[in-house]
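Hi X.,

You mentioned you wanted examples for the new student's onboarding notes, showing what a folding record looks like when two proteins sit in one file. Here is a clean example. The first protein comes first, with its sequence line followed by its structure tokens.
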Amino acid sequence: MATHLVSGRVNLAFWREVARRELLDCLDKCSGSKAVVWDDFLTGPIGLIAEYSLLKEHEVDKMFPLRMGRLPLTTTSSGVGGAIQNVIFIVRPKLDLMTIVADNIHKAQEMQGRFRKEFHIFFVPRKSLLCERKLTELGVYGDLTTVGEYGLDLLPMDSDVLSMESDSAFKECYLQGDPTALFHVAKSLMKVQALYGIIPHVYGKGEAARQVTEMLLRMRRETASTERPITPQIDCLLLLDRNVDLLTPLATQLTYEGLIDEIYGIVNTTVKLPPEKFAKKDEDPKQQEKPAPDLPTELKKIQLNSADELFSVIRDRNFHAVGPELSRRAKILSAQYEERKDAKSVSAIRQFVSKLHHIQAAKMSLATHTSIAELIKERTDKESFMDSLQAQQEFMNGIDTDKVNAYIEDCIARKEPLIKVLRLLCMQSVTNNGFKPKVYDFYRREILQTYGYDHLLTIQQLERAHLMKVQEQKTFPTIRKTLKLVKEDVNEQNPTDISYVYSGYAPLSVRLAQFLAGSGWRSIDEVLRLIPGSTIEEVQALPPGLKKKRPMIGDSQGDSPKVTLVFFLGGVTYAEIAALRFLSQQEDAPSEYVIATTKIINGHSWLKSMMDGPDIAPPDSSTAARSS
């Protein structure tokens, strides 16, 4: 079921198995038939951990989304054995959800009759004192038989990616000054070390990285007596604040997977696409003359992970390199089908039949990704997409960043979606270390007059996140030059540098990881001082009895690449993940990377997470699918 999680240097299927076991332990605390009431947000993440058939084996008879009103709990689905005995709420520690939980309990008690029900609640990932107090105020805390927690923090998204899928982590940390998400990060890292061994070297950049490091070291001191002597599978931990590199998530990703996320949004490794492109075409020419049947209306759900062999090959490529690869695969498939004509003997026919299942699966995958590529190309060929991309490239190259940009001015005049305008404005501000006062006043006045004065709060939120501000000392040109963030004449088909993921711009975050694994951060000490936040370097002693098995990051000895866990505090893009995979795959690569993050993001979702309001929101996946 999750064989694709085994293929990395660190076996993340083991992580998934532990998470499954912890979930089942929670359920098994409640003996008897069960109805599980899910917080909507958690159904997707937990679906990556356990399927319904597994839950049924542990007496889960019914499942409901968390909604106001009465739950239909009169009988079990089999109709045998009377009413449901246990109602289990699995929810995030959000105060507004407690009102719904209380309403469900009150109405279930009204209808209880002769069958007594027990109510249980498990908070994900941690219990909240405020939520417990709220349940007390609503008069239901005493009715709960169990008040527990299910410590689901990092979810295995693929063989080398773990995500907390916390939408609010960046906003909490950087806008509200709430360190709760950082505490959850530290707890998850303790769990990583419990399963895969102590990580000897810890590096970090940014204030959030410093806080996580301090919490991690303190937690380890508190639990030192219970540590198991496990040989470390991870050599190095690199913690990176998102505000160390604000530019990368604002730029439009140009990898295949990145563009899918930009245009349609990938949620828990699944994308929803317009069904018309996937409707089977009738191969009979006579049938094509007949009136077309009604096209399907339900969005096409497609799972995107490395279990799909073709997707694992093209996901991290620049989109310009996807078409040639699909064409090459089509020719290979065609040649394989032709083999059946040459199969004359029984053994040759048997050999062809043995390969037939794989060939058919490859054909379906090729058809799927050809359709997706066509959908993306329809978007990327549009003049509006190319104009926006050109403006972004100019900002990243430092061209005319200190004056009002004509393209942004036109976008505002045409009243284009505000999220698009804000994304471009933030890019210009970040690449110029802020706006000149007159330029900033002009932009702010134009936005408020065009889109409404209620967006003054939006601008203030972006200011607090340092995405839009009045100009300070110009450091970005020095950072760009020293770290070689911009490359000319990038080979998108056969790249030699990570800058291919943005067709000429190398993500600052990944450059830092690259320098750390190569010549070390001391070689870029001066430029590190220009990047905001503390620079962290700590060594963790291994438990007694364990010796250092191999050299650490930066050492010249050793014949196999080291393993580095890069944890992005505040979100990571698919383009950055692609760049780190590219580094892992190079010959003589000093390190292979496992990526962890609070959330996988794109520019739209990231900006939206900082603010509220329907005028800001990007189209949801269904609207986006229709508009293509």
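Then the second protein repeats the pattern, sequence line and then tokens:
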Amino acid sequence: MLSLGPKFSIPYSKSDFPWLDLMSDIEGFILGQDHLDVDMKNGLRASLCGLACGFYKRLTNGASLDPFHKYLLFLFRKTKAFLEANPDIYVVNSDKGNKTVVINKSDYDRKLLDLLSDSETYKQLKADPTIGVQVKSNKLIRQLEDFSLVSEIEGKRLRKYNSVPPKIYGLVKIHKTGNPLRPVVSCCNSPTYNISKFLCTVLSRIKHLFPFSIRNSYDLINKINGITNIPDDYVLISVDVKSLFTNIPQDLVERLIKDNWAVYESCVNVPLDVLLNIIKFIFDNSFFQYNKRFYAQVRGTAMGNPASPILAELVMNHLIAFVLSVLNFHIPFVFVYVDDIIMSVPMSRLEEVLRIFNSFHENLQFTHEMEIDGKIPFLDLLLIRDSGGIKTDLYSKPMASHRTLHFNSLHSTSQKIAVVRGIKQKILSLSDTSFHPKNFKQQATILCQNGYPKTLVNKIFYGSKYSTSIPSTDNGSDKEIFRYYKLVYIPKLSQMLIRLMKGTSTIVVSYYKKTVKSLFSRLKDIDPPMRQSGLVYGVGCSNCDAIYVGQTCQYFGSRLRQHQLDCKRQSEATALSQHAKNEGHLFDFENAKILTKETNWFKRSFKEMLLIRKHPNSVNSRSDIGSLSIAYSNLIKEINK
């Protein structure tokens, strides 16, 4: 089961049927159909809910699952039970190669603690700095509002009030001796996340001034196609920075911006002192949590911080400009992608070039690889010397798993076709025509190893129906505007729903919740329930079987304290406090439960109504579910059986 990869989708059973997501996705779609009147919306809603209810009935008696899907469920449950019975086994992703790694928990912890023991990069903190950093971040954002650099609405969106600390985890470097970990810091919902995204947006306005950057392999192909003047005594080399993100020098970033401000100012539209203040704030407040301990990153930025890629790009472009300014000989080409550089230099001056690279800044040190037999890998390409120019072929690293979305995964057929078409596009666009026959044969073999029927692969690879032409980018006023909607993918059911939801300007995009990824180990620290936010919760009455269902964007603990205070004051602010006052009952706040998590306000409010309707003993007032359509009642009744 684990060998199928984290994206492999598993069928649902009665116990994990995603009815909350399904209903909220349907309601979101219905409300977006502005061209329909109320009666037409109700009719469409009833039809969609009817299909969902009928499918759930068949699911409960096993009629909707064929023998293969039942076998997948059996394997999934067996694997899950084994991993739960053996908590010392970790299942994680590899850093490169798209492989699944099984590692002992103690080995994983030791490797990550070894990383954190580097006192030049990290230091342990005495306490959780999250709230303090959140206050400073919000103060900085208010200053942006005061200077009219962001609107009041934008400022409100940028401010954080329910932050959680960033979490570090590691990806196993299976290609390195000893299999060390690459540290990644998950910064989502952290106090610096929004201000870091703002900095990324601001600095991205100067990306067009970075002449050496490439966006991807396709961009590289476009730029090297015209190169025809590489002398015979030159060699191709790739240069790589050692741990770039954790070694980005703050002083260097600030100096580069100051020195080039005359060029950057008109693009950035943010005063220099404000921009430098934001950069300093992000560097000074880089911290994370691991095993309930808190660490500060005292050097560089974290992989996972939204601002890290653009800061790295800024540094790398000025690094290359520095190197070229020192060299007194011609360089046919040089390009950079994040921390990887590809260039051509004279063989006799190679050591000089590397010395200049390493002299740029003491924190930035480089390794290099040189062409072998006129060939060198870069990104997912193999660059090949050819009569003074370069031609390209596809390249896979030796540790590559050659694992793609498996054909037996319960994804939509259109997505599987898109996988094959994407590979065809890569072959035609990224490899020289002389390599096309070889690549089509190799990739067809890989796809067949991933379960794809050979007839389907050949039909797409060699048929004219599946064109790889690039769609028109015409921005004319007559261009049709599409509205996109998300729908949780449930095999067999989703296809029926999408047929009803299709419209001339509507695109429904599937997403997948139950995959092999759910079997992987949770490497990041879990926030305590009382520090979680964006959720729907339930609080039971201690004196009867009543329950109150609510939703909050606050910390769960803060919301419960408000309820307790309302009860103490005998307030009637909520149905919970009304029940406590009128009946003289007490609520069991210590055992309050999180029913579901949802960051989107509309979906959270809608899921709250569904859960109120689901609980027959809810003390919530009728007005709390006044806008909930009766069309959802039948499915809720089936769920309650």
